[in-house]
Batch of 4 targets.
Target 1
Amino acid sequence: MTENSYCNAAALKSFVLGAIALTVSACAGGGSPFETARVNYAAGSDLGRQLSSREVDALSSAFVPAITSGASGKPAVWSSGSYSGSVTPGEYFVANLKPDPATLLPVEGRIEFNDPLQTERGLFVLKGDANLRTGPSMEARVVTKLDGGTSVDGVGKVVGKPWMLVAINGVVRGYIHESLLVKAPGSELELAGGPTRRAQFCRGFSQTLTLFAQTDHWQGVVCDRGEGWRLEPAAVPAPSM
């Protein structure tokens, strides 16, 4: 065996042994060495702060799908060891569209937030009847039709596209084509909007967690700010016993 062949064989042996060691560690309960940090979605509960990594994983396997695509009001249940619980997805919200990025605006239904928005555009009035859509395109689903003369709040103008994300009575409803909007009387001379931001999708939830005869019930909000679903600490009230 040449010197190079010996070195290559030694390197391969070292790699294989290292891979075996990592696999054994994961199978022993340590988890994949490449996984991201666990998120304890029950951190708003006294019982939840006592969960083991295995129990946190069991909760996450129910929590994430429920929040991502579950029907509002329909609980997803889970159990692990002596613990059991449920997570019930609730209302939709959007964050990072106001000067304080933690401000949560209620959203009616699931709306697309893929494009950057020039925020705080001010008040507008519909020139005529207009379709309200889930996304900034003619192919997006129509949510409803609004009557001409309806007042809307321009939450954000889609950068590079002729579409406005609008809210009515404080609730974000969807997108309207810019050609159908005119500045509300008395607001024509307002400054042209705020900084460009990316909307961040959020959702409310309620949870239960049971250990033997003790049960915690609480509510909270999670947002995806670019790192997957994370609890919003200011929006998580203390658990009720």
Target 2
Amino acid sequence: MDDVKLLIAAEIPRLRRFALSLAGDPDAADDLVQDCLERAIRKRHLWRRYGSIRGWLYRILYNVFLNQASRRRKARLEVDFEEPGVTLSEPARQEQQMICDDIVQAMRALPGEQRAALALTALEGFSYDEAAGVLRVPIGTLRSRIARGRERLRELHVEPPARVALRRVK
């Protein structure tokens, strides 16, 4: 296995976390990561070996996410019927779990551009410059998306726990 494949493999957990924040569904996130990895391995010769492979992979994943928008819209229209007689378990009662669930629901309510900007900066720790590069937008646009996303989260009355706080990264 060549060095690029090893570098790509090391980023899989982070890619999955970012994909989950974008897609909101574990199965869709896995598909997104798989499509990203397939494309990255097939086009690994295009990576310029200066700079981080992480940013290059995140850009691929985000582009795949955007390209699959029509498929996601169609999938949302499908009705998922539960099997009769199957009872759902009770939701967790732990306060931390409930806070995390609130954050996940609020993030899902954000438009994709805001969700991606917040996920890259607040969750993945990218600087504004790095995140703007991944999303291929000017830094002012990124800052605008982050500000609007934070404001929307405040409107939804989400108080993130200290370790998942939506911090400013520059």
Target 3
Amino acid sequence: MSEWMSTLGCFLYIDSKVADRLIACSEKNKFYVGLRAMVGCNQIAVPFHREKRYAGSPKQTFKRLVNYALNAYFSFSFIPIRILTYFGLFLIFSNIMFCTFLIIGKVTDIPLGYFELLRNFPGYYTSTVILIMFVMGVQIIFTGVIGEYVARIFEEVRNRPYYIVEKVFEADKKLEL
């Protein structure tokens, strides 16, 4: 038990029931603070005064703390993958709006503010930029979709228990239907 206790970034006192539940989570990069909340036992905070370090320097460098924070974020959230998909959708939507403004600007003589500058450019520059932005948006969306599938595979491979059973009650009689 002391092997995995030494990797915690905070101090805990847990009983064997909680330890067994944490050990049952078979993932490699464990974020114990999140897992401790996930296993769902009663928790209390015990305030204590930490004395100044007696000797040596802290082993937690800035890089280790950033890695710890990223591990916490990616262990319990798929938001970055969804942000990628939404960014691709935003890119395609803004590209369609940009094309609409350009078409309106070419067909009519309505002043369109900053888009007036684009009237003086040759047509192939504008169409090249529009095409690149559209293809980039489609690629980002497909990357987000693939990321969603990988995230679901990751969720299954992580093999966290769906339910944690506290007690099992057995009936004395069989129920007749």
Target 4
Amino acid sequence: MLFAPPALSRRNSDSRHRGITLMEVLISIGILSVGLTTVVALIPAGGSEARRAVVEDRRANLCMSAIHDAIVRGVLDTSNWNALPTEPFRIVIDPLGGATLGFTSVELSNLTATSVATATVFQGEDDLSYSLENSGEEDPPVPLYFRGNSRRLSEGSYTWLATLVPSPPVATGSTAVSQYYLLSVCACYKREGSATAFNVTAPATGKGVGRSIVFPCAVGRDRFRSLFPRGGVVFLHDTTNGGVETCDSRRIALATQYTDENENQMAEVMFDRPTLAAEGSTLYAIEGAVGVAEKVVRLEGVSPWAQ
């Protein structure tokens, strides 16, 4: 019978019972740390995308319901306006924010800025309020109601404003009576202040003709991001297009701020669809504007249907 040499037997025994080295432990800890860091970094990103999805869903519902509210609650009835501008009408109705967008601001006799009903009409009610004070660890949040009322309370983060312009657009100074108007409803999320105006210097070229514009924008980076977020909404008021006054809403596809060769702080904004805005037009940015819905309507009091 043959036996292996003693030295070879010890070497085989040591290799079979060898443990994990310190270097292998350190490498494993490093790999695990990288994996855990990646997972932790995805949590806030996922929360941000979830909040964005909620805003997108609620702003769509708010825009459509606001159009119906404008029709049902007499916004299209000229007898409810506090003043009757010269026809054809180009007006904005914004009792909560006071934006003009270059047009005549009109108040409603039944929905003034100080009226309690105004907040009810021009605010969305999808962001319901809850309380966690009287709920246990496993109990659901308790919904809040108006005192002595069965109506649910909402956070009031969503608001809207409306504009009315002739459809199709008519020349500035024309006294023709328009039968049809374009009703545009702009939904806002956590709106801050009124509209900020910027003078458009020229349409940008070479990056999607007709889809982007350039204008001076001497605001800070944080302010710029809040005014021109991706997916946000701006209004373009133009009176240079052959004498035809227009006010179109556009969603922002991309916005960037830069310094030109003359050390001027400029901005370029690209939209989701072409625009006719040219040099001399005005861009109005509303912080928190997230969506727009449009509908061609006929005003009550002007339409034969209301007679």
